[in-house]
Specification:
By secondary structure, the chain is mostly helical. The protein is 57% helix and 5% strand. Strands 1-2 form a two-stranded antiparallel sheet.
């Protein structure tokens, strides 16, 4: 399957998959926090608080990078029949997946910087700024001729929609040894 022959999912479908991803990622993050608390003895010094943030950044990155390079999708993406591929339609290499993860922080980083710069700490204030940042980043797909989000354009990747009936494990360039046996339909 080439990138040009694959169907591009709607922005709405990709955003809904991202909401589902948020819930799944919450479980991963909870396990990471529990491990951090056990390893650090539940210390709350500022250095440990910053360490926890760095730990969560790395755990989140590992989750996404592993998913994108291994099968081309996370569990949420698999549920919504979405797959990340390179511009050429090939499996995403490690370096590209890391670049995509870092570029995807554009969804949140500018809003977090605004909150820090203006001393916004209230939940309502932060939610409003984060919401505005998410809407702004979402709109990057509306201005892209191929409807790609900015982080995909920057990383040289695209999200494609897998056809119905085709197992999500059948990502481009997948081999049965690397992907496991196809699911029974």
């Amino acid at each position: 399957m080439t990138a040009t022959s694959a169907s591009t999912p709607t922005v709405k479908r990709r955003l809904i998959a991202m909401v589902y991803e948020t819930f799944l990622l919450l479980a991963v993050e909870m396990l990471a926090v529990a491990l951090w608390l056990v390893v650090t003895g539940n210390r709350h010094d500022p250095a440990f608080q910053h360490g926890l943030k760095a730990w969560l950044f790395l755990v989140t990155g590992a989750y996404f990078v592993y998913s994108w390079t291994n099968s081309g999708h996370t569990l949420a993406m698999k549920t919504w029949r979405l797959c990340v591929v390179t511009d050429a339609g090939a499996r995403v290499p490690l370096r590209t997946a890391v670049l995509r993860y870092l570029a995807a922080w554009g969804w949140f980083a500018p809003a977090l910087l605004v909150c820090a710069a203006f001393g916004l700490h209230g939940r309502g204030e932060m939610a409003a700024v984060l919401g505005a940042g998410i809407v702004a980043w979402s709109m990057t797909a509306l201005f892209d001729r191929e409807r790609r989000f900015l982080h995909d354009r920057l990383a040289g990747t695209r999200v494609i929609m897998l056809p119905k009936g085709k197992p999500a494990a059948s990502a481009p360039d997948a081999t049965p040894d690397a992907m496991g046996a196809p699911e029974a339909s």
